[in-house]
TrEMBL record:
Family: Belongs to the binding-protein-dependent transport system permease family.
Name of the protein this chain belongs to: Amino acid ABC transporter permease
Any one Gene Ontology cellular component term annotated for this protein: ATP-binding cassette (ABC) transporter complex
Keywords: Cell membrane, Membrane, Transmembrane, Transmembrane helix, Transport
Length: 294
């Protein structure tokens, strides 16, 4: 047997794959066990160290600790990421449309701009916004994230449009649609659905890159984790690291699941729903025609 892209593995290959999977799993478990032992030897699993989250020392309350992370820190992270995402998606769409122009005088300068900003580090753009343009730290983070990710989103959207069959454009032109009508009514909606996983992956990267605002003193989540560690003592660094990592993972996982939901919903709408069989007439089973798509 063989599939379209590769030959289906036989019994010997499946046994070999299973054996290597078991070996790899045992190796990962061994690494995790060594890490656990190393942390345990330093007393990182002691209950007293984790009490900083419900009975913190130095006259602080658990509400103060969690508010600094979830309300102040995470709130600042989500605000910067949300504003930057809206600006980057909008600018990326504009850049992608302009780059699809048939005029070289229009297309080449935009291509140069996209390639230039794709090659710059995000933190360098943040430094430029704060120290050269004099922007506040919030807008410095937003500027760096928006400028860099707009170039990435432009390339993602352009790749989605280019990947569509040319027959769709030709059919649209044949019925009298203009180039812009074809682009925005036919090509772009399909490109967004097709490239949605890549768009969401880049949004996750954008969210994580807000932690670079720590370098320019923007009070995002990572900055508050470090502040808490310095206030309560370096002996709590591992505990705040674990909680901070869990917060980042939870937010990014939620964003990914939302994208999956939107992708499935968009696919169903694009397919016109699922056809249902008509109810039997006169109590007889069969003979019914497929009902209208829902």
């Amino acid at each position: 047997m063989s599939s379209v892209l590769y030959d289906v593995a036989g019994p010997r290959t499946r046994r070999r794959t299973l054996a290597w999977s078991i070996v790899g799993g045992l190796f990962v478990l061994a690494l995790l066990f060594l890490a656990y032992r190393q942390l345990d030897s330093r007393g990182q699993w002691e209950a007293e160290r984790w009490q900083v989250f419900w009975e913190p020392p130095l006259g602080q309350s658990a509400e103060d600790v969690w508010r600094s992370m979830l309300i102040t820190g995470l709130g600042a992270t989500l605000r910067a990421a949300g504003v930057a995402a809206v600006i980057a998606l909008t600018a990326g769409l504009v850049l992608a449309v302009i780059r699809m122009s048939t005029s070289r005088l229009v297309r080449w300068p935009v291509t140069t701009v996209i390639e230039f900003f794709r090659g710059l580090p995000v933190v360098l753009l943040m430094f430029f916004a704060v120290f050269a343009l004099g922007l506040p730290t919030f807008w410095g983070v937003v500027f760096g994230l928006a400028v860099y990710n707009s170039a990435i989103f432009a390339e993602i959207l352009r790749a989605g449009i280019v990947s569509l069959p040319k027959g769709q454009s030709e059919a649209a032109y044949a019925v009298g649609l203009s180039r812009m009508q074809t682009l925005f009514s036919i090509l772009l909606p399909q490109a967004v659905r097709r490239m949605l996983p890549s768009l969401v992956s880049q949004l996750v990267v954008l969210l994580k890159d807000t932690s670079l605002g720590f370098i320019i003193a923007y009070p995002e989540l990572l900055r508050h984790l470090q502040t808490n560690t310095q206030f309560f003592g370096q002996r709590y660094w591992f505990q705040f690291f674990v909680v901070g990592a869990a917060i980042y993972i939870a937010v990014n996982f939620t964003l990914s699941r939302l994208a999956v939901y939107l992708e499935r919903r968009g696919t169903k709408k694009a397919a016109g729903g699922v056809a249902k069989a008509a109810e039997p007439v006169g109590g007889k089973v069969g003979g019914g025609e497929a009902g209208p798509a829902v």
